Every structure is written in C-alpha cells, then in structure tokens.
Amino acid sequence: MRFKITFNRTGKQRMLPMDYQYYLSAWIYKVIGQADPLFSDFLHSQGYVNGHRSFKLFGYSPLSFGKPVLWKEKSLFEIQENQLSVNISFHLAEAAERFIIGLFNNQKLYLGDRFNGLDLSVVSVERLPVVDAGGTVAYRALSPVVVSILPEGKKYPDYLNPEHESYEVLLRQNLINKFNSTPGNGSIGTITPFHIKLRSSPRSKLITIKPYTPEQSKVRGFVFDFTLSCPAEIHHLIEGCGLGEKNSMGFGWVEPMADSKKVNKIQHETNLQND
To answer: Which fold does the domain 135-274 belong to in CATH?
Structure first.
C-alpha cells in the first residue's frame, strides 16, 4: 500500500543535500521504532529473510518540492517551496492502513546532514489509490533502479545497465526472493510470464549513501521507462516495496504511466493473434 506524506517547512533553512536518501530512510526507521522498537530493529538489522538475503519490503519516492535552485558544485538543492511531499510504500496487509497513517501523522523531523538540512513537520498522511495492475504495465522509474552482481574475488559490486544481458534474469530473481520472504506468500521458483522491455534510454544516477561518514558508499542505478509483463501479484509486490535492490534506501520507486491500460490492451490483442 502507498501513502502520500505532506510536510510544511518550519525553519528558515532552505538548503537540502542532493543525496538526502539516507536521512529520509533513517527518519522512517525512527518513526516505526517509536511505535514498535522491536519491529524497527528487525527491519533495520535483518528484514524479511529468504535464504541468505534479507528484504525490508518498504520504499519511498523522491521528494517533491517544486523547482529548486541547483548548487551543483556543493551538491545542494535550494528549496523555494514551503511545502514538500513524499510517497511511501509498505508491503503490508490492508488492515495496517490506519496504523501507518497514525504513525506518521504530526511527526517532526530535521532532514539533512550537520551542515545543511530542513526542519519539517508532517501536516497530512493520505492513502493513495491501489493500482489495478496485471498483465503488461508501462512504468516510469522515478528513482534509480539498482541491479548488481558481485564478481568472484571483487570487494565491490558491479551495477548493471538495464541493457545488460543478465539484467532481466537478476531482476526476476530479486522479485522471487522478495515474494518468498513475505509471510503467507508461500514459495515460488520462477515468475511466468516475465519480460521487461525498455521504452527509453537508461540514464545513470550515482547516489552517495551516508555522506561525510566513515560508512560512506556510492550506489549506481538507472532511471528509464519500460513495460513489464508479469502476473498481477508481482505488480502488487512492486507497488508495495519497489523494483530492484535497496528500496528502503529510496531506490527503485516506479509508477505506472498514463498509457499503461493502452499498452496492456495492445499486448492482450497481440497475444490473442499469436494463439
């Protein structure tokens, strides 16, 4: 399920680090921890486990704050608007809706590092409509989608371009692992059908995680438009926790495009012709 959280800017500070994802993720963990410390610690340290992999099963969109002034040499946004918003998703049962809304309502936060950031206050939390997705859906990646491999003998992973020959296989396996880690889902060995088709040239984005700390790292993902053909329950999984890796750090937020229904209809008619 997805929610829209709207903030008012309460301080005079206007500068926000461009790589704000870690700070937003830390705030989400903090809010969850205020209600249920054990669940927050579970998400942060372990997540939902499938084999040797763990998944947090939540995600969030890029912040929406109008058109900022860009200070590229300092990696800062100068925010002009007094109101900001973010969409956040959780792969949870419908019964959790009121719990999530109550959890985030009226929260206050400082978003940024020790040099630059914004004082914010939550003014509203609203449930977003459920997307009726199935078959072939046209998506746009609003935040970078991350797919990686760790070559034998290497310390750091290789981040794959969506045009890489192994991209679809690894993306499908990531979704299988997420699905199998969700309590009550049972276990699947594959996803059929499953096919991703690019509709735009992928653009690379390099994001710094935990900047100015000893734990600083860089993650590369790609933003692009695409169609994805897969069962409805996999589209629902993507809606709840994002696509690809590192969703709880703000990666892999995708949204259906306006022509999704048209694309699905064309694909259905093509399938009928091929039967």
So the answer is: Alpha-Beta Plaits (3.30.70)
